[in-house]
Design a protein that fits this description.
Structural class: alpha+beta
Largest sheet: 5 strands, antiparallel
Mean pLDDT: 80
Distance between the termini: 86 Å
Number of strands: 12
Radius of gyration: 33 Å
Low-confidence stretches: 1-5, 10-14, 18-27, 340-357
Shape: extended
Order of helices and strands: EEEEHEHHEEHEHHHHHEEEEHHH
Amino acid sequence: MSCTTCSSTINGIPKGCGNNGECSSGNCGKLTVFDWLANMELPQGQEKFDVVEIRFKNGRKNFYRNTKKLPLCMGDIVAVETSPGHDIGTVSLTGELVKVQMRKKNVLVDAPDLPQIYRKASQKDIDVWKAARDKEAEVQRKSRLIISRLGLKMKLSDVEFQGDGNKAIFYYTADERVDFRQLIRELAGTFSIRVEMKQVGLRQEASRLGGIGSCGRELCCSTWLTDFRSVSTTAARYQQLSLNPLKLAGQCGKLKCCLNYELDSYMDALKKFPNQYTTLKTAKGIAIFQKMDIFKGLIWYAYKDSPVQWHRLTVEQTNEIIAMNKENKKPDNLEDYSLELELGDDSIIKTEDLIEQNSLSRFDKPKKRKKRRKNRKSRNRNNNTQNRAKK
């Protein structure tokens, strides 16, 4: 979903968000949900589900009960119940899909303590809400000065004002326990508001602030990723990636969430492969694992006596040799099993072409054609001068 200010011009140049992420059409598509049940009618006698999902700043969502049975649809700006006062949010989901989201977040469908929706936001409510949002940058700057003056070991990442402007949530990250009682007193006295301190993790901070990843796209956590699953270094090992923390870590300093995306495919492919610590026993000697190509199904082994010379085997051949070793049988050597490359193999030519295309120094090589032309010109000049001298 997008609004007119987020669209492109006639020439295809994006206009950019003129509403700065506050448009009522879905917050520029950030963490939006497609309601595929919107055009389906409910069975006769069944009432519409009275719980609505409301989205606030930076993708924060909560569930509210529509006790007054207001006709709400996605994108409507509403005033909801908070403690104290009221807050302004945007309707992100209605209908039967809200039940699915509540089950995912372990919220009871018939929970009696759900807050309620007061009304659709009036123009006065929206004006007060925007005025409070405009203060956030300046409040955040002054709050950081207060934190540095008090010497607290914490980082203030974001400030979110309530819709009525009477309360603000200060999001921070800290490695140790922080005593911010004095900080709350100074913040409340300086800005004349109610203060709520909320500690978030490094990944939650990155999702709130957003950014561009190493892939060139916007961060997954700030666009569509709603839950943060644990990522371990074993995911990188299964995918044969180098354990370089500079390449595996994201902007949050933790391992990238995308390491889990293709992990299941690698795990399924690795079921056929033998253990890397299993050695192959032959009459010529014992062979040790060197490397593997998971999706091509190839494994390289080398003898202990000659580790420089590698022998390429398929997974089936390797499992066959391991089965022979379990029966106390040994093949003569690996050379009989290894795959020898033929001169006319197309894969060799394609690999060389790719290497030539991806070489950064390919533009530095001198062009032979130009040299030949220069040599021909010089030869013609010499021949002409010799002919003139003879005449």
